[in-house]
Amino acid sequence: MNCFLCWRRPIDSKVTKTAKQKQAFKHRVQEWAVKLDVEVVWLGVRPMHNKWASCSTNGHLNFNAELLGLDRDLWDYVIVHELLHFFVPNHGRLWKSLMRAHLGDYEVSERKLKSLSLPPTGVLDKENAR
Asked: Signal sequence: where (predicted)?
């Protein structure tokens, strides 16, 4: 019997790896959301051209898909960074204190992230321009 339902192409291991990374990343976001007592209404991971992540006041989070290939400490930095914006909308003293309380020396991860060339004009560059 030869039909299109019986024939399967092998699944690309890169696609499988990316799907697993995306699932692990979303799981990590949920872990931090529970820890910080934040309700995440919607969570997306997609290509973004000029920032690592964004959030809205109604509980929506978007993360740059490029994060999936980075170290877990950078995941935590970006995740906590965005989740704390549900409490503090700016990057003032309170926000910095909360970052330090949850991640310790978060500036190390911040510097690592800024040293990467992805995305070309990152959200962190915009923050420092203020």
From this structure: none
Does 49 map to a domain? yes
Q: How far apart are CA 48 and CA 101, in angstroms?
A: 29
> Is there a domain that residue 119 lies in?
no
pLDDT per position as a tens digit, 82-126: 999 999 999 999 999 999 999 999 999 999 998 886 644 444 444
* DSSP string of 27-78, one letter each residue: HHHHHHHHHHT---SEEEEE--SS-SEEE-TTSEEEEEGGGGGS-HHHHHHH
Question: Do the Cβ atoms of 99 and 32 come closer than 8 Å?
Answer: no
Domain tally, the chain: 1
Residue 50: its pLDDT value, please? 85
Asked whether residue 118 is domain-assigned, the answer is no
Q: Could you tell me the residue range of the domain that residue 92 belongs to? A: 4-8+17-108
Residue 113 inside a domain? The answer is no
The per-residue pLDDT for 15 is: 59
Prediction pTM value:
0.79
